[in-house]
Amino acid sequence: MKKSLVLAMAMALGVTASAYAANPFSDVPAGHWAYDSVAELAAAGVIDGYEDGTFGGDKLMTRYEMAQITARAMANGADVDALAAEFAEELDALGVRVANLEKKADNVKITGEIRAQYVDYDSNNSLVDGYESTLRTRLWVNGEVNDNWSYTGMLEGTQELMNNTGDDKVELKRAYLNGRLGGLDVQAGRWDEVTGIGSVLDTNLDGVKVAYGDKVRVSALAAKATDGVTELSKDRVYTAGLEAEIGAFDVYANYVKADTQNDKEVYNVGVAADIAKHLELSYDYSWGDKKYDELVSKDGFVVGLNYRGAGTEVGSYGLHANYYDQPVNAYFVPTFDMPTFEDGYKGWSVGADYTVAKNIQLSVNYYDSEAKVGNEDNQALYSELNFFF
Predict the structure, then answer these.
(1) Does residue 84 carry a pLDDT above 90?
(2) Residue 168: strand, helix, or coil
(3) Is the pTM of this model over 0.85?
(4) From CA 154, how far away is CA 281, in angstroms rounded?
(5) How far apart are CA 378 and CA 121, in angstroms?
(6) Does the structure show a pLDDT above 60 at 102?
(7) DSSP letters of 327-343?
(8) What CA–CA distance (Å, rounded) separates 271 from 252?
(9) Measured between alpha carbons, how far is 289 from 292 in angstroms, rounded to an integer?
(10) Measured between alpha carbons, how far is 220 from 334 in angstroms, rounded to an integer?
(11) Which residue in 190, 191, 193, 200 is deepest, having the highest Cβ count within 10 Å?
């Protein structure tokens, strides 16, 4: 056993320079530099030497022997996290739970999802006609800062499987803190903000959001859009919202303002309720404060019908259908998988989700949409296989 290791173990147990017990080892005589420390470690049951009554200080220990010593030190309340981490596998083989390390490990959790997607477009717009196949990987990191604050991060990478565009890259798509200040819930950083069902806004923002309440909840945010390729083009964004449970109804109201098109403003209200067992009907209505595009109206709506929902249980499934009538005056960046048109869009979609195996889900969605003005139209079949881990 090396001098530094004996001293480190003795210090971990709070051993001082004076001996607390007689030294039981014949090869550690009185006056030896390690006499006091070895005596205390032996008295504490941390070390027991060899069958011949020697300590064997000049011998090299096996990792298993060192794990035994570490386990005994932990049982005596020693702070030996570094040693416990080094000999974690050996400690596990001994049946020793490294409680302190487990507690710290629980502070950070990593989960992920992989989506294999194939899309078949049929459109009179050559820019979106054809086929597309991608593999998207997301890794989520969730960390507990303390009892009131937590961190969420998400790395995303997408590979184009059919087109060699050379644009494959991994990006930090989410990075935000959640916590409480007084009675307010606070979210700060970069996240995907979805107002209501997303008919008005569904995009990444960098900013701060505060909310208050439970069954009746009010919120407000100030942020900057990060998606430079969307209609917002890195604009400043401000929202205010209200959500409430009123009997069997879930209702919401939102106000969204952005720098786009000279401080464009959109208002949005919605309601959802179960109309039968496992069957939910929803209605979402939005309108702009003025006509930025004179060719279309200021208001739009989305009607949705959802039956059941695919969960973690194998064989569980969900069905959904939506009808859209959305002029560009009434939204910024909507939740709509299909490409939108310059003046807005209208159309419908149907889809199904099915859990084929544990943590594996199949989704199929069909969209049929057309421009609010002109004769452009898009149809597409989306097929996805999602893996969660």
Answers:
(1) no
(2) coil
(3) no
(4) 32
(5) 7
(6) no
(7) EGGG-SB-S-SSPP-TT
(8) 7
(9) 9
(10) 19
(11) 200
What single letter denotes the amino acid at residue 384?
Answer: E
Top-confidence residue, 373 or 56: 373
Four-residue CA torsion sign, 29, 31, 35, 39: positive
What does the alpha-carbon distance between residue 373 and residue 295 come to, in Å, rounded to a whole number?
A: 7
> d(Cα 239, Cα 221) in Å, to the nearest integer?
5
Q: How many CB atoms lie within 10 A of CB 136?
A: 15
β-bridge partners, 340: none
Neighbours of 178 (CB within 10 A): 18
* Nearest alpha carbon to residue 182 among 209, 208, 148, 151: 148
Q: How far apart (Å, rounded) are the C-alpha atoms in residues 221 and 88?
A: 45
Q: Which H/E stretch holds residue 83?
A: helix 81-86
How many residues appear in the chain? 389
Q: Which of 368, 241, 346 is nearest to 302 (CA)?
A: 346
**From CA 85, how far away is CA 92, in angstroms rounded?**
11
CA 75 to chain centre: 36
Q: Which two tokens stand for residue 258?
A: 């952005």
Task: Give the CA radius of gyration of the chain.
Answer: 31
Whole-number Å distance between alpha carbons of 253 and 197: 11
Q: Per the structure block, which two tokens stand in for 250?
A: 């879930």
Buried/exposed code over 250-277 (b: 16+ C-beta within 10 A; e: otherwise): bbbbbbbbbbbbeebebbbebebeeeee
- Note whether 154 and 132 are within 8 A (CB): no
Strands 130-144 and 299-308, sheet pairing: unpaired
Distance, CA of 292 to CA of 343 (rounded, Å): 10
The whole-angstrom separation of Cα 279 and Cα 284 is 17
Position 1 pLDDT exceeds 50: no
Residue 17, helix vs strand vs coil: coil
CB 32 within 8 A of CB 53: no
The rounded distance, in Å, linking the Cα atoms of 336 and 284 is: 14
Q: Which two tokens stand for residue 153?
A: 């991060």
Distance CA 102, CA 74 (A): 14
